[in-house]
Amino acid sequence: MKGTWRQGLWLADGMLLAVALIWGSSYAVAKQALLFYPVLGFLAIRFGLTFVLLLPQLRGGGRRALRPGLPLGLVMLAIFLCETWGVMLTSASNAAFLISLCVVITPFMEWLLLRQRPHNTLFLACALSLAGVWLLTGGPQLSLNLGDALMLAAALLRAVLVCLTRRLTAGREIPALALTAVQSGVVASGCILLGLSLPGELPALPAEPAFWFAALYLVLFATLFAMFAQNRALGRSSATRVSLLMGSEPLFGAIIAGLWLGERLGPVGWAGGLLIMLATLCTLGIGRQPAPSTAGDGAPVRA
């Protein structure tokens, strides 16, 4: 019996590392897709496909996701607009490290919005993360470009989304896939409306197989498989263990960006990225109370 439990734990850990690898690769995949199609069109396709695949989840009890899903979807729309334009305007490795600052920002956002004072260790983590961002964006020759600034805005908005999700779903049984369906529908609809008002953002659908491979990869693996793996792992392990394993995402992102896109971080950049990862691990290791087991706790953020 003990051996079966341990085997299940190792399987869950392996799936989580696979998710971290997939999420780390998502920045390079999105960057490649944006070579073929504009940001708004790409997001409309990506989240439109997600919505269509998850539409059956809105039957019956899934309809309870409509009320919280609409405002949460608007925040998610802002996140992905910042994140996707940010990925296009900065390196995939920078994007992966900067977006992980969400983990450090979230406790402070909880303090502001939910009146939950962060642990004192988080102030050290914040100092480490700020030093990491300074090194990652040039150190003494600081050069925070627009893409980096957008990734920082996306990290801040992700923290807002986590806190808002906890507030809107507290004490309510809302299926995770149903909530993701509503949020995806809002993001897709918002991108279509914005695209129709901006010339050139919704051209004819691309014919390049590389674009459709990227879109399907993000929908099937970065969203659907990732949600399944997280939910399975949370049933077999602690939230802290899950979070620590997922904390390897930015490292995978930097490695994949180097191997696939030929991006190179210098020693100063690597030092900054590792400081950000260290700050993230400090934050996750504090052992805060996990959020209620409701739909949006983390999964829809990376849809």
UniProtKB/TrEMBL annotation:
Residues 12-137, 146-283 form the EamA domain. Keywords: Cell membrane, Membrane, Transmembrane, Transmembrane helix. It is found in: Cell membrane. The chain crosses the membrane at residues 9-29, 35-58, 70-89, 95-114, 121-137, 143-164, 176-198, 210-230, 242-262, 268-286. InterPro entries: Diverse_Substrate_Transporter, EamA_dom, EmrE-like. It is a multi-pass membrane protein. This is EamA family transporter. It comes from Stutzerimonas decontaminans.
